[in-house]
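User: Sequence recovery, please. Input:
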């Protein structure tokens, strides 16, 4: 019998009502996992869970505001009541609404409420989910926590300062978890994602902005949700059993080249040569 690499593992996927989280949930399920589709948007979460069940896997939607401790505690209790255990926590949720993006700018123009919301959802949310899911992993003597970070969490940029600071902290949170619970069988890693627009995300980003970002990826195209989900499934599974405390870049090389590369390429094209 062909057994999936996540066979009978129970995965909590936050922000799984759409986008990259929904795709990770679907890919985990295809590898045999049982899924808790955790999101503040329960209607969309229900749809993702139902679609997974319709394909013969097990999934439940758990309406959760990950920034609130009581809500996260209740979520972990509901998952254990239904599936009996928690093996995987994919800390994927982040607040990325238009309203949030309008307020989260350069530091002197920062809307303090947007700053606090970014920290509460992106960072406190991941800590709270870890706080309530890791004890279940310790009982099993195994577990994997995956924190989603971004190029903005590693390199300075012109706006989204709160998002960036929260994403940088998620790298450190993964290392703290790896150090604190590694001997108890729990691994934790960060996944640094390049641009992998989901569904209709292209419609909300101006074409010129998308082109600038694509020029700075080393791959012919931007990423896809499936490419990201495949890397998350690797970190969730025993295939990565010796990988912990690390930051895995799945970013099409966005963070690996010199800052001058794109401008230099255009100069070389105009010169007709790359002789320095
Ligand atoms: N898509 C990309 O190209 C890209 C690039 C780099 C990093 N990322 C990261 O990947 C992750 C997913 O991104 P996405 O593009 O799929 O975003 P998305 O906005 O499509 O999904 C985020 C999900 O989080 C949920 N959410 C928001 N606040 C919540 C709360 N308080 N409690 C529970 N759920 C909440 C939303 O309802 C939504 O379903 C994010 O952490 C993002 O920072 C994405």
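Assistant: Recovered sequence (276 residues):
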């Amino acid at each position: 019998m062909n057994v999936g690499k996540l066979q009978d593992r129970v995965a909590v996927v936050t922000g799984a009502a759409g986008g990259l989280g929904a795709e990770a949930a679907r890919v985990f399920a295809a590898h045999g996992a049982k899924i808790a589709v955790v999101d503040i948007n329960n209607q969309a979460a229900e749809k993702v869970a139902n679609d997974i069940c319709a394909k013969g896997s097990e999934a439940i939607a758990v309406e959760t505001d990950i920034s609130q401790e009581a809500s996260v505690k209740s979520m972990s209790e509901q998952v254990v009541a239904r599936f009996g255990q928690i093996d995987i926590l994919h800390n994927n949720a982040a607040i990325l609404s238009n309203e949030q993006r309008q307020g989260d700018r350069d530091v002197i123009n920062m809307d303090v409420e947007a700053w606090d919301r970014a920290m509460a959802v992106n960072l406190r949310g991941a800590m709270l989910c870890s706080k309530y899911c890791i004890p279940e992993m310790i009982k099993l003597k195994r577990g994997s926590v995956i924190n989603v970070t971004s190029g903005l969490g590693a390199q300075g940029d012109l706006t989204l300062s709160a998002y960036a600071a929260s994403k940088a902290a998620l790298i450190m949170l993964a290392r703290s978890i790896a150090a604190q619970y590694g001997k108890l069988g729990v691994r934790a890693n960060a996944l640094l994602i390049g641009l992998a627009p989901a569904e209709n995300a292209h419609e909300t980003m101006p074409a010129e902005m998308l082109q600038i970002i694509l020029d700075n990826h080393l791959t012919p195209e931007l990423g896809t949700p499936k490419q990201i989900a495949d890397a998350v499934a690797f970190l969730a599974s025993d295939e990565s059993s010796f990988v912990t405390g690390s930051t895995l870049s799945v970013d099409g090389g966005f963070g690996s080249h010199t800052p001058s590369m794109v401008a230099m390429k255009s100069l070389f094209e105009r010169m007709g040569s790359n002789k320095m």
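The chain has a mean pLDDT of 96.
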